[in-house]
Amino acid sequence: MTIIGIIALINLILTVSLIFIERKKPEEMLTWIIILWTVPIVGFIAYLIFGGTITIKLSYWKRNKDLCKGYLEVLNKQLQEIKAFNINKGTEKFKELLPMIQFNLKNNESLLLENNEATVITSGEEKYKLLFEDIRNAKESIHIEYYTIHPDRVGEKLIKLLEEKAKEGVEVRIIFDGIANIATKSKFYEKLIKDGGFIRKFRLWGLGTNFRNHRKIVVIDGKIAYTGGMNIGEQYANGHKRKNPWRDTHVRLLGESVGILQYYFIKDWFYLSREGNVQIDVENLEKYFKYKETKEILPIQILTSGVESKESNIKMAYCKMINTAKKRICIQTPYIIPDDIILNALKTAAASGVEVNLMIPLIPPSFLLKAVSDYYIDELIKYNVKVFQYKGYIHAKTLIIDDYLTCIGSVNLDIRSLELNNEICTLFYDDKFTIGYYDIFKEDLKNTIELNYELFNNRSYGRRIVESILRILAPII
């Protein structure tokens, strides 16, 4: 059989997989079938890099099956408790939120965690001060997972600190995305590994290269956790040459939520470890779950999506949250490139009288992202969505629903985050917390310019054509 014949046979198998196994959206499925059969060789290579999902997901589910077993027992117990309405019984606001909580529990296996404390962090300087101090005080373990760890002043400070802790006998583990950190030389981690630290890269090349690990998780001694929108680098502390001032959001957590973040870190570590080289004592996992007891009541659910998800869990949760809003929706995102489901949910909310406020940066992330975002902004302003441009660079990924629900995480409002990336976000079901973050949002508004809709609508036809063409790339940028 010729090479062309072999590729044609493989493409036929991929086509069958697309239709009967992967069950992609009709438009995406049709696009891939056309590509596979009009340009077979290029289509085959492109599909391996950007299209295939099922083999990646199957390998993840297989590796984590044993780890999930104990968690599912806890999950099923809480599902029964929620059905019996045994949590926060009698709270009127909770009764309103119950469908949302139950949805996330069933769809995302996301436990409701009531005993938590949260500190909202809105600058890189503040985050690194707190984070580095907590790392200095670590006694047992430091687990770090970031999309990018830049080899700059901040990154070097972190690695040097981790080297010191590893020498002291503290267990140090780092996960980072292979593609996002491709320019970082292995020498950057050489001494840390020599001192006893462990490193894992999330996929570099090969099948499923289009997947990215965009999560931000730090767990220290199983007692303190960090998650949100910031990676490690000078730019998050106003060190970027062009994108200044830089505005971001992160949270420092104590309480039950720390255990769940630890759980997700260990799941990711297992997935990235070859059999026999896990370097975690599977029989003694309890030592990683020592979260501090807290008397504070702050109900939280932590959601994930990506390789381990059978569905687009976070996207479905975002759609549910948007549809739940009765009064107000406030969004912060560096760019907006939603799929039709989220786009139509926002349009429907705005058309129904819900105040929808969208905050994006005045300084564009890039020409490509700016052009595609403008296409969707044009769609949204027709429905009276208010768009505010932050005078600097807003990198926060947050969502506020009315006065009772706040979402803070790693999720950009784009198709990549909603459909492909490994992402994580935290939902806070609390009036006080939400009003507090809405106050931060209103403070941010003082440093914005509301989009001039008349000027925006006068964009040239050439610009509009470019936006429409580049929109085709939305699923992969």
From TrEMBL:
InterPro entries: Cardiolipin_synthase, CLS_N, PLD-like_dom, PLipase_D/transphosphatidylase. GO terms for molecular function: cardiolipin synthase activity. GO terms for cellular component: plasma membrane. Its EC number is 2.7.8.-. It is found in: Cell membrane. It is a multi-pass membrane protein. Keywords: Cell membrane, Lipid biosynthesis, Lipid metabolism, Membrane, Phospholipid biosynthesis, Phospholipid metabolism, Repeat, Transferase, Transmembrane, Transmembrane helix. Residues 209-236, 390-417 form the PLD phosphodiesterase domain. The chain crosses the membrane at residues 6-22, 29-50. SUPFAM superfamilies: Phospholipase D/nuclease. Its main location: membrane. GO terms for biological process: cardiolipin biosynthetic process. The keyword Iron does not apply. NCBIfam families: bac_cardiolipin (TIGR04265). This is Cardiolipin synthase. It comes from Clostridium collagenovorans DSM 3089.
